[in-house]
Amino acid sequence: MATKASLKTPKGTRDWVGQNVHLRDDILRTITTVLERHGGTPFDTPVFELRSILAEKYGEESRLIYNLEDQGGEACSLRYDLTVPFARWLSTRSDVQHVKRYQVANVYRRDQPVISRGRLREFYHGHLRPMIPDAEILCIIAEVFEALKIGVTVKLNDRKVLDGLFEVAGVSTDKVRTVSSAVDKLDKAPWDEVRKELLEKGLSDEVADRVGSYVQRSGELREMIKRLESDAELATNARLGGGLADMKLLASYLEAMDVADKVSFDLSLARGLDYYTGLIYEVVVVEDNDGQSPPPQVGSIAAGGRYDDLVGMYGWRPLPCVGLSFGIDRIFTLLDARRKKKQKSGGPDLRVQAEVYIMAFGDGDGFDGLLTERMRVARQLWSAGVRAEFSAKVRPKPQEQFNASDGVPVAVILGQEELEAGQVRVKRLHVGDRNVQVKDKGQLVPMEGLVAEVKKLLASTASD
Amino acid sequence: MATKASLKTPKGTRDWVGQNVHLRDDILRTITTVLERHGGTPFDTPVFELRSILAEKYGEESRLIYNLEDQGGEACSLRYDLTVPFARWLSTRSDVQHVKRYQVANVYRRDQPVISRGRLREFYHGHLRPMIPDAEILCIIAEVFEALKIGVTVKLNDRKVLDGLFEVAGVSTDKVRTVSSAVDKLDKAPWDEVRKELLEKGLSDEVADRVGSYVQRSGELREMIKRLESDAELATNARLGGGLADMKLLASYLEAMDVADKVSFDLSLARGLDYYTGLIYEVVVVEDNDGQSPPPQVGSIAAGGRYDDLVGMYGWRPLPCVGLSFGIDRIFTLLDARRKKKQKSGGPDLRVQAEVYIMAFGDGDGFDGLLTERMRVARQLWSAGVRAEFSAKVRPKPQEQFNASDGVPVAVILGQEELEAGQVRVKRLHVGDRNVQVKDKGQLVPMEGLVAEVKKLLASTASD
């Protein structure tokens, strides 16, 4: 016999049941609606890719990739994100110059401690003028979280600005990405810890402190741009200057789209992945719009950026892209907490309520339960699109059938005599009111009129 | 530079784009609607399971399981079907006595030649009286393929009948499952080939021929039951007798549910998997209901059966189950062929048609393209749920904007003068009619009335 512990799902994964799936699907539908409004077309890729496709795309995170065992076929790995598979597809589709695509899928990362990564949903543009698609993505973020009623701030930064800062601070070119990875931890760890990591990575005390003095700044977009422009030392760096020019363009677009008040320019935002080349962003929760604050701590619930070189890395053609990914599991955690506060129900509800319960009553030993007759009626109702149920017993007792119909709005009642006359009884079920229940015998209708009568009754209960 | 060949998806997998995803989603939605009508609740499990969960569940097919590489964590494998993960879940949920669940998910099999297995969707019952849920599953099959307009036959058999036949034919108990696997190939291979395999598996010529004389029979359900009952030799086998009694019960239920004419009792149907214990079925296409026959050869498009012992194999509690799985990829292939016959379009359409195209016109060098004004209008329309687009150029040419708006029903036109007066032009686009197009200057509306006017125009074009 297997132990119960051995009958679990693998670490970091879970089963989804009933209401939880419905909530997850609601979230996905809300996001898709916004993406399709912006011209998004759906896209799907395999759960595993050739290992070579994923190689050298993720920097230090590459060690977290799940590989498939060598069983004599191609060397494959589970997808680590949805960006690289999309870039792989774009790299050979020379007929596609511009596409907005979205994808709903799980990604797999061997994190320690293992956490559930859930589904992501991403959205991309192809070749377009700088900052225009970037601004549209930020507008999409605003629309999605308005629709989900989650108050958010979008932290922005730009890889060109960040790399420029590191240059000015004295970080050597070969250390820029690894310093970037360390700095990205500032949202979870204090500066002292990050500083220690920078020293371990070979930075001098002086350089580390200069990095620290820059990356701990954040604030309103226009104001931060002004502060950085007025810094004489930074003004000498061409790369940083290019990044700031982009940010100014972006600021004007965000003001036009009325989303400027949703963003903050945060120099500590670095994003771990290697492939970003320009604007990067992460969405954090600031308040739960139902007024119940503080919301659960879930980290960033959406993130993305511009990756202009990734498609070109496959050697066939360059194609600038911007992308965005929603952390569906984290959004689920937020909204599930909100739902639970409201309903206080225990566990996922597995039962889907039927609209009609089909019963059979009869007297004595001669009564055979009318099973096939109940089936015949069920089939008629199913064919008419009605959710109908009946007892799976051959001769169910009356009380059993009453209990099973608890909460179902309409009953169809079969009796031997009525059937012989080509009739059935259709009755509204009055929840919790035994007296009404017993007095109300329902209505005799001819078998041919059954479906119409049931639909009429259902419509009247719905309008109560 | 990577070769183009190295930029493909792994063998047996594919990318899904645009219209193809929409068609697949339509199929899934059609099936879900039927399943929810029958009380189905959605369910989802991880893409990989602990390897021990999958062990000894699939007989000879076990060698087709994909394993994850040992990277220092738990030993895991990709799910091979959706039945075993569900049984794993049920085995420890002692609070669940009866559940109808469905799951939409991919499964992974290392077949040679590798073929795409796509998504499956399954539906299960828990503890219920024999043949009642089985009959409901067959009714669900009928409803689903009626809704999809695909003409089908459901091939039925029963493991007890089949095992009984093998016993009477002289197959030793230890060879029953392997003989069963060989016989199951009769839908693709001629009897001579299957016979050869049986001899290789150690059957004598005589036993093989007796097996052959039985399993090549098929026909209408009641008629086949009668034929088998009247066979004096078979009548002596208790197991076969039990199976036939079940089949008679099933026949009466199917007649009541008006699906008896959809089924055929086929003694060659064996199903490869170890875990079936009673009724088994496979759905094959007989005609494409649009009258275009013959349909593409796709093999069985749905299949399932009763597995009363699988949950108990985990050692915690027994729970009889019946299940059904739809081969979504194969159904997709059928319906995609039908769609292509109708529309003769080339390749998947990546573009989602906008409802409104926002243009800007102006004269001479002083015209700045009104980009942020176009963005402001776009944001208003997006917030109102309207699919709106604009050129991602700073100063787009008139002709470029006309070309980009091809097929879009409504244009919003911005001009410097109108904007200064707080106005924009809203215009219906007349596809392909240049003269009407040039004459119709559209309508000047105040900026505040823009959204309402656009919605009015969209409603009027929709009703054309």
Automatic annotation (TrEMBL), chains A, B:
UniProt keyword list: Cytoplasm, Nucleotide-binding
| Chief subcellular location | cytoplasm
Q: Which residues form the Aminoacyl-transfer RNA synthetases class-II family profile domain?
A: 12-446
Taken from the UniProt entry, a GO cellular component term is: mitochondrion
Gene3D superfamilies (UniProt xref):
Anticodon-binding domain (3.40.50.800), Bira Bifunctional Protein, Domain 2 (3.30.930.10)
The EC number of this protein is 6.1.1.21
Spell out the subcellular localization from the entry: Cytoplasm
Gene Ontology MF annotations:
histidine-tRNA ligase activity; nucleotide binding; RNA binding
The cross-references to CDD domains, in alphabetical order and at most eight, read: HisRS-like_core
Binding-site residues for L-histidine, renumbered to this chain: 81-83, 109, 271, 275-276
Tell me what reaction this enzyme catalyses.
tRNA(His) + L-histidine + ATP = L-histidyl-tRNA(His) + AMP + diphosphate + H(+)
Q: Which InterPro entries match?
A: aa-tRNA-synth_II, aa-tRNA-synth_II/BPL/LPL, Anticodon-bd, Anticodon-bd_dom_sf, HisRS-like_core, HisRS/HisZ
According to its UniProt entry, one GO biological process term is: histidyl-tRNA aminoacylation
So what family is this one in? Answer: Belongs to the class-II aminoacyl-tRNA synthetase family.
User: Would you tell me the protein name for this molecule?
Assistant: histidine--tRNA ligase
